[in-house]
Amino acid sequence: MSVVRRVRAFAGQLALLALLAGLTAFLVSGPARLANGRTDDGLRGDIGKLASSNRDLTFSGRPVDGEVSAAAQADRLATLRADLPAPLPGLVGAAWYLAESDPLSVIPAGTTAGPCPNLAKLRFEPDTAQAVTMVQGRAARSGGTPEVIVGQDLAQAFGLEVGDTFGLSGRWGETRTRVAGVFTPVNPADPIWDDQRLATGACGESVRKEGVMLTDQAGALAAGAELQDLTDRWRYRLDERRITADRVDALTMAVAAARRTPPAGTTLWSSLDSTLAEFDRQVRAVQALLAVVQAGILATAAGLILLAARLMADRRRAEFALLRARGGAVRSVAGRTIREALIVVPVAVAAGWLAGALLPGRADDFEPLLVGIVALLGVLAAPVYAALAARHPSFTGHRSDEAALRPSARRLTAEGFLIVLAAGGVYLLRRRGLDTGAGVDPYLIAAPVLLALAASVVALRVVPFPLRWAGRLAARARGAIAFLGLSGAGRAPLHSGPLAVLVVAIATGLFTGTVTSTVDGGRDRAADLVVPADAVISGYYFTPDTDRRVAELPHVSRATSMLLAPGAEIHGDAGPMILQGEAMVLNATTAGLELPPALTGAVPGGERVPAAVSRHLAGQIGGNGTVEVQGRTYKFTIAATLDSVPGLDAETRDFLVLPQQAMPIPDYQPLRPNRILVDGDGFDVGQLRTVADAGQREQLKQTTGRTVEDWQLPVPAVVTTHAAYRAALEQRGVDGALSFTFTAGMSAAALLALSSVVLAVLTGAPARGRTLSRLRTMGLSPGQGRRLLVFELVPLIGVAILAGGLAGFALPSLIGPALGLDGFTAGVSAGISLDPRLAGGVLAVAVLAVIAALVVENVANRRLRLGTVLRLGEE
After folding, report:
1. Under a CB-based contact definition with an 8 Å cutoff, are residues 724 and 272 in contact?
2. How many whole angstroms separate alpha carbon 568 and alpha carbon 312?
3. Which residue ranges traverse the bilayer (predicted)?
4. Which of 656, 654, 667, 619 is nearest to 634 (CA)?
5. Residue-wise DSSP of 647-664
6. CA distances (Å), 799 to each of 135, 422, 502, 745, 847, in order?
7. What pLDDT is attached to residue 558?
8. C-alpha of 189 from chain center
C-alpha cells in the first residue's frame, strides 16, 4: 500500500511520465499505420489502373511441331495456379482459360484484302457464355462453317450483321466465318472484357480497327485447323485488394521466377514485375523519408521522457537524500522508483499502443519491438535518474550549476565523439548510398538524429559566450531584469537536455518542411517542362492551320503548332552512324518558350538551320548534321546545348530542337504538327478537343481521300492543362503516404518542440521561484517576473531554432542522394529549396513556446506558493 500512497503523492510527476510514454507509444504505431495504409491504397490504385496485358499473368501455350490447340485445356487453370511461385497462388482473384488466334485480317464477302484491313482475333473462352446478353441472333453453334458472335461496337465498326459471311486470313491460312449473333456485355466493367475491347490502330497514313470475335469450341477447332493458328492461354487476374506494399518485393521476385521458369510448355506474358519494381523503388524512397522523420520524432519523444524522469528525480531530491541518510542504498532508491513507474507507465504505453492500433492501416513488423523499447525506457528512466541523484554532488554541498558550468574531460570527450560520429555517419551515408536491401536503413535513421544532437552540442558550448557578453552589457543598463535573465540563459549547460530535445524537434520539422518544398519545387519544374503553356493538345496529326482555329476560340490568347518526331534519324558529321532522338520543330519566335536566342532570333536564308541539342547528343553529332523530318532532310548546325527543353520531360536524353521559322519548308509539303501549345485563361477544354479533332479528320481526309469519323481517329485529341498535369504529379501511388509523412512530421515536431520548452520551464521552476520570491521583497512586480522568464528563454529558443534550422535545412543536401527525391518529381533534379512560409511557421512556434512557458510558469509559481517561501523557509 505504501507504493500506492507514493503514487498518489507524486501523481503529477508520474502522470507526466506516463503521458509522454503513452504518447510515444502512439507515435510508434499510429502514424506508421496510417502511412502504410496510404501506401497500400496507392499501390492498389496503381495496379487497378494498369491495362490487363500489364497487370494480369497470362501463360501462353507453345505449340509443338506446328500443332494447333484442341481448345480443351481449361482444366489446367487450377494446376497452373498451384504451380505458381509463392505468394502468387493466394493473390489470384479470377482466372480464365481461352484458345485464341493471332490477329487476322477481316475480309468482307465479295471483296479482297486491302492494304489496311480491319483485324480481329478469333477466341474461344468458355466463361464468356454467362457474361453476354444476345441482342440479335443466337449463340454460336458451329457446324461445317465456324460461327462467331460479335459485340455491338465491333459489328458497327466492321459493318457486320447477323448472317453475314466473311473471310479471316492469317499468316498460315484462311477460313470462312459466319456471324451468328450480336451481343452486349452483361457487365462492361467485368475484367473478362479488359482484353477484348475494340481498339483503333494506325496503318501507314490510314487507320483500322482491331477487336475480338467469340466462337464455340467446334468453331475454334475448325477455324484453327484451316488457319493453322490457335493457341491456349491461361489468364490470371491478381486481386489488388490482397496486395500490400510490404509484399511487393516478394511478389516481384515471384513474377520474375515465373517468367524464368514457367510451367512446362508455356510462356509468361506480363509486365507486372517491372511495374511492381518501379513502385517498390518509390515505396523504398517513401520509407526512407518516413524513417528519417519517425526517427527524429521518436528521438524527440524519448528525450522528453528522459526530461520528465529527470524532473521527477530533481523534485524528489530531498526524499532521496533522507533515504540515503537513513542508510538506504542506491538500489533501494531505484527500487522504490521503479515500483512506482511499473504501476502507471505500462498501462499508459498499452493505451497509447492501442490508440494507434485503432487507426486504419498496416502495422510494421518491428512495431512491437519499438513499443517494448518505449515501455522499457518509460519504466527505467526515472529509477536510473533517481539512482544518479543519490550520487549527485549536491548531497555533499557542492553547487550543481558550478559543476555543470565546468564540464569534465569525460563529458567533453563524449561530446566531441558525438560530433565526429555524426559527421562520419553523414559522410558514409553519402558515400555508400541507401541500402535498399536492408529494409529501413539504420544508417539513414541514425545520421540525421546524430547530426541534430551534434548541432545542439555545438550550440551548447558556443552560446554562453555571446550571452555573457550581452549580460555584461545589460549590467551597465538601468534595471536588473535583462541582466538576470541573460545570466540565467548563459548557464546553458544547465539546459542541455531541453536544448538538445528542442534542436532535434526543430531539425526534424524543418527537414520535413524542406523536403516538402523541394519536392513541390521539382514538380513545378516538371510541369513547366512537360506542359510549357496553359494547355497542350496532342494527337496523331493536325492540319497546319489548326492552331489558327484554336486561337480563334474564346479565352485563348495564343496557339502555337509544334511537331514532336520520336526516333528521328539524325546524321552527324562526327561519324557515319545513324543516331535517333526526339526532334522538336516549332516557331521559336512566337512560341513563347524559354529557348536560346540563337533559335528565337533565327531567320530563313541560311545554308544550315541553327539547332539546340541535348548535351549527350551533341557529343555524338559533332558540330553539324542532318535530320529527317516527315520525309524531308534538313541541314542544321549546333547553336546551343541544353540539359532540358520545354515540351519534353526531363528524362529525354537525346533531343534536337529546330526553329520552324528558319527551315526551308516547301509550301507544297508543309509540316503536319502533332502538338498545339495553348495560352489563355478560362478556355473550354471540350472546345479545344473538338477543334483539334476536326483538324485531325481534315488531315486524314487529305491523306487518304476518305471521310473519317471521330471514332475512326487513330489517336483522338488529348488536352492536358498545366494545372491538371501538376495535380496528377501528386496523385501517384505513393503520394498519399508522402503527403501524410510531411504533414504528420511537421505537426508532431511543432507539438514536441512546445513540450520540450514546457519541460524546460518546469525543470527550472523551483530555482526561479526562489529567485522571484527574494526579488519580490525588493519590489519586483509580477509583470517583471514574466519578463525575466522571457529574457531567460528567448535566447535559448533562438539558439535552438538557429541550430535546429541549420541542421534541418542541411539534412536534405547532405543525405539527399540517399533519399532519391528525384523519384517524386518526374525525373527533374529536385535540388534543395526552402519555402519562406517555413520561417513564419518556426517563428509562430517560437511565439507559442514563449506563451506556453509563461502560462506554465504562472501555474508552477502558484503551486509553489512563492509568497510563503521566504517566510517559511521552504525550498
Report:
1. no
2. 75
3. 288-309, 341-363, 369-391, 412-430, 442-463, 499-519, 748-767, 788-811, 838-856
4. 656
5. TS-TT--SEEEEEGGGS-
6. 79, 20, 10, 22, 14
7. 92
8. 29
The pLDDT score that the predictor gives to residue 873 is 43
326 in helix, strand or coil? coil
Give me the long-range contacts of 160-165 (CB less than 8 A, separation at least 24): 161/136, 162/136, 162/137, 163/137, 164/108, 164/109, 165/109
**Mean model confidence pLDDT for the chain:** 82
Question: Per the structure block, which three cell numbers stand in for 746?
Answer: 511537421
Strands (E) across 457-598 are located at 535-538, 556-572, 578-586
pLDDT above 70: residue 805: yes
For 428, other C-beta atoms within 10 Å of its C-beta total 12
> To which residue does cell 567533453 refer?
412
Alpha helices in 777-822 (DSSP H): 782-819
CA distances to 593, 638, 697 from 618, rounded to whole Å, are 21, 8, 38
What DSSP string describes 137-190? E-----SSS-EEEEEHHHHHHHT--TT-EEEEE-SS-EEEEEEEEEEEES-TTS
CA distance 97 to 51: 18
Distance, in Å, from the CA atom of 538 to the CA atom of 693, rounded to the nearest integer, reads: 10
Q: Please tell me which of 326-340, 440-454, 503-517, 773-787 the model is most confident about, judged by mean pLDDT.
A: 503-517
Q: Which of 533, 616, 516 is nearest to 833 (CA)?
A: 516
Cell 516557331 identifies what position?
A: 587
The CA distances from residue 611 to 212, 276, 590, 658, 669, in Å, are 46, 39, 16, 5, 21
Name the band, by pLDDT with cuts 50, 70 and 90, for residue 679. very high
Paired strand residues for 184: 133
Residue 292's nearest CA partner among 838, 821, 822 is 821
- The span from the CA of 243 to the CA of 326, in Å, is 64
CB atoms within 10 A of CB 532: 22
Distance CA 587, CA 671 (A): 12
- Quickly state the pLDDT bin for 776 (edges 50, 70, 90): low
- What residue type is 672 in one-letter code? R
Spatial contact of 532 and 647, defined as CB atoms under 8 Å apart: yes
What kind and span of H or E run contains 867?
Answer: helix 866-872
Calculate the alpha carbon distances from 323 to 6, 319, 336, 341 in Å: 14, 6, 11, 18
Q: Which set of grid coordinates corresponds to residue 599?
A: 533559335
b (16+ CB within 10 A) / e for 845-861 = bbeebbeebbebbeebb
pLDDT above 90: residue 692: yes
Residue with cell 476536326: 694
* Residue 13 to residue 273: CA distance in whole angstroms: 55
Q: Compute the half-sphere exposure of residue 262: CA atoms within 13 Å on the CB side of its CA.
A: 15
Cell (9 digits) for 520: 513541390
Residue-wise pLDDT for 115-141, tens only, equals 788 899 999 999 999 999 999 999 999
Looking at residue 545, its amino acid is D
- In this structure, the dihedral spanned by the alpha carbons of residues 756, 762, 767 and 768, taken in order and rounded to 10 degrees, is 90
C-alpha 93/C-alpha 588 separation (Å) is 53
Q: Give CA–CA dist 546/561, Å, rounded.
A: 8
Q: Would you state the cell numbers that stand for residue 615, as one nine-digit string?
A: 548535351
Location of C-alpha cell 487529305: 702
User: What is the helix (H) or strand (E) element at residue 132, kind and residue range?
Assistant: strand 132-137
- Answer for the pair 124, 220: CB distance below 8 angstroms, yes or no: yes
For 269, the grid coordinates are: 506474358
What is the DSSP secondary structure assignment for residue 360, as one 8-state letter? S
Please check whether residue 763 is in contact with residue 310, taking contact to mean a CB–CB distance below 8 angstroms: yes
The alpha helices in 316-399, defined as continuous H runs, are 317-325, 330-357, 367-390
Rounded mean pLDDT, 572-580: 74
